Model the fold of this input.
Amino acid sequence: MRLNELRDNPGATKTRKRVGRGPGSGKGKTAGRGHKGQKSRSGVAIKGFEGGQMPIHRRLPKRGFNNLFAKDFNEVNVGRLQAAVDKKTLDPKKSVTVEALEAAGIIRRVRDGVRLLGQGELKTKLTIEVTGASAGAVKAVEKAGGKVSIVEMPKRPAKSKPMESKDKTKPEAKSASSKTAAKKPAKDSAKSSAKSSAKTTKKDS
Done:
């Protein structure tokens, strides 16, 4: 084998198609796009177009729905708890709460709570406080001498609009007080003008 004999395997590389290089190239003139029309232009993607008739994705009925009130639970098996106890990331003497599971790295984040499932084997006595548990999981924990208690998780805080700052109300109060202060001198000037006119009429009389 020599350097000048090195080459790619057959079919490993493919020459680029050169279009619009004359009728002799086989892809000249319209460059394989056909004649005229919308599809002979670039940037056209007509998905599901069936020549004007009702497309199939609109002819078929809709099915199913998304539940707006569905709960998003973390699912944890009892075998995962035993593995965490063996690694000493979970303390069996303390009660196993959602916060303890998050600190041990068993769950990534607290969603709507934790549901305990019965897959695996549990040998350690644990006191577990979770949002939900299957019958098999409760049986496995009680068999090991532990206890499962169901605790409701607090609701997630809804995204609220940002409250307006109190500083915005202060200039309005100042402007209102300035308006009243401006009105008072006007009334005083009117009273003084009325008194002066009354004095001049008395002198004339």
User: Anything to note?
Assistant: DSSP finds five helices and five strands in the chain. Strands lie at 74-77, 114-117, 127-130, 132-133, 147-150. Helices lie at 56-59, 78-86, 98-103, 135-143, 169-204. The mean pLDDT is 82.
